[in-house]
Amino acid sequence: MFDTRRRFLTMLAGAGTFVVMRTESLGGQAKPTGRPPASDPNQEPESSDPTPAKSPTKAILEANEKDIKKNIEKLYQLATDLKAEVEKTDSSQVLSLALVKKAEEIEKLAHDIRTRAKG
Questions:
Q1: How many angstroms separate the CA atoms of 20 and 29, rounded?
Q2: For the chain, which residues make up each domain, given as ranges?
Q3: Which helix (H) or strand (E) holds 91?
Q4: How far apart are the first and last CA of the chain?
């Protein structure tokens, strides 16, 4: 039983690290390119405003990205803390409730990151 608990927690910490790395790599994906909009000859030329207005969708996506990055940092910290606690705890007897709660919190956070990344 000692071996399976340790293996479970090690796998959980590894999975959390994988989620962090995977989510970070998704941020560098190329954006799809579409056709440029056809220019209307009757339309007035656009002003050269250096700060164009952001669409509401883009603002939501940027806020979502910030939340994902913040959650990834929190997930990494929790996984690191959990790994350190597992290494210094004699789990041959019974796992502490704090370890189990921290593992559950990591699971919830990873699920939240996954849901947000899917959009």
A1: 15
A2: 6-25+55-118
A3: none
A4: 39
Q: Write down the residue that tokens 């690290």 correspond to.
A: 17
Q: pLDDT for 61-96, tens place per residue? A: 888 899 999 999 999 999 999 998 888 887 676 678
Measured torsion, CA atoms of residues 95, 98, 102, 105, in degrees rounded to the nearest 10: 120
How many CB atoms sit inside 10 A of residue 90's CB? 7
Take residue 7 and report the two structure tokens written for it. Answer: 């293996």
Closest by Cα among 20, 14, 11 to 71: 20
Q: 22-70: per-residue pLDDT in tens? A: 665 655 555 555 555 555 556 655 555 555 566 888 888 888 899 999 9
